[in-house]
Amino acid sequence: MVQKYRLVKQAKMIKTDDFSSVFNFRKRFSLKYLVMHYQPNSLQRARLGLVVGKKTAKLAVSRNYMRRVLREFFRLNQHDICHVDLIIRVQKKFDKLDFFQIKQEFDTLIHKLNQRIIVSQQKSPQVMRQANDNL
After folding, report:
1. What angle separates helix 60-77 from helix 99-134, to the nearest 10 degrees?
2. For a Cys staple, 30 with which of 26, 35, 103, 128, CB 3.0–4.6 Å?
3. pLDDT per residue over 117-134, tens digit each?
4. What is 52-85 written as a DSSP string?
5. Which residues are registered as beta bridge partners of 29?
């Protein structure tokens, strides 16, 4: 099957409740520019939410550029990301000069995320078996 790299509407997190549930799950990774909050979901795809605050970048042009870059990274990597609700929060302003550093940081965070999700999925069946054995 050929992978389509289109960013569909179902891959975007828009509702406040979706954002709140991910923030309340309290799992995250952070590096110099980006913080990634995540929560596993039961959907068959990863979903993305972006937070770029006015404290980070005063001008709307800068905030929109950061959103656009992060959305594009997600679009190109969406098939490689485990099924999670993902919120990326920018904690330090970046611009075109930092593009490759941001790309590297995004890839590092996705790699860490996939490793952690896979490990937790491997532990879940063991925990379930132990609980059943104790009954």
Report:
1. 50
2. 35
3. 888 888 766 554 554 454
4. --TTT-SSHHHHHHHHHHHHHHHHHHGGGS-SEE
5. 36
**Token digits for 15?**
């509702």
Mean pLDDT across 20-33: 93
Cα–Cα separations (whole angstroms), residue 55 to 25, 89, 93, 128: 24, 12, 9, 44
Looking at residue 118, its pLDDT comes to 87
Per DSSP, the three-state class of 97 is: helix
CB contact at 8 A, 88 and 56: no
pLDDT in tens, 51-95: 999 999 999 999 999 999 999 999 999 989 989 999 999 999 999
Among positive and negative, which fits the CA dihedral 63, 37, 100, 71?
negative
**pLDDT on residue 131:** 45
Tokens describing residue 57: 């970048």
8 A C-beta contact, residue 53 and residue 111: no
